[in-house]
# Entry
Amino acid sequence: MAQSSIEWTEMTWNPTTGCNKVSAGCKYCYAEVMARRLQAMGVDKYKDGFKLRIHPEALEIPYGWKSSKVVFVNSMSDLFHKDVPLAFIEKVFEVMNDNPQHIFQVLTKRSDLLLQYNSRLKWSHNIWMGVSVENKKVLNRVDDLRRTSARVKFLSCEPLIGPLPNMNLDNIDWVIVGGESGRTPRPMKEEWVLDILDQCKESDVKFFFKQWGGTNKKKTGRILLEQTWDQMPY
Ligand code: SF4
# Structure
């Protein structure tokens, strides 16, 4: 487990590491850059770099946390990657089921496998399930998520690289929006963000504005309409 600088969580927990790219949002994958850096530093967990790896020993970790946490599961991977066996995903869910004092935020781009496995998983109230939606080409992920039995469902629209007009937000609890950062970030237009904010207000969905992004994300900050937007689905 590691402290996280991500604004909408507190900690990260990575029972799997590594991944491969599936859609445009993956282009400048932060996890890939970080995994290669950790590999170069000789960190054992990342000795295979960004190749998908299962870490059964990590399943014990949440049992040792003393106070309740908000935890981003698999910040360095995608739990629903096709090479993660369903039996291992079930074990990860068992750990989350066993630890209702913590909130676990699971985020995937593989909504097809999420939906396929849905009935095999026990959706305790402390599991928040999200899908990444970077542009309208992947809006099918929202429909897949909606059909799951997760109690809290959320969208991570980051990096937002295109408009998302007229989304169906039925049964969605929370939307996070953020612009891309790094050396060559793709731009995010303010009008796209404001449109998503309006859709959230209309559908009574909580809204979290993470960042404008850009080459200097500290400078561009996270103010939208003269305020921060830190709504959470609880
Ligand atoms: S799905 Fe996530 S972790 Fe995997 S390559 Fe894409 S951005 Fe990176």
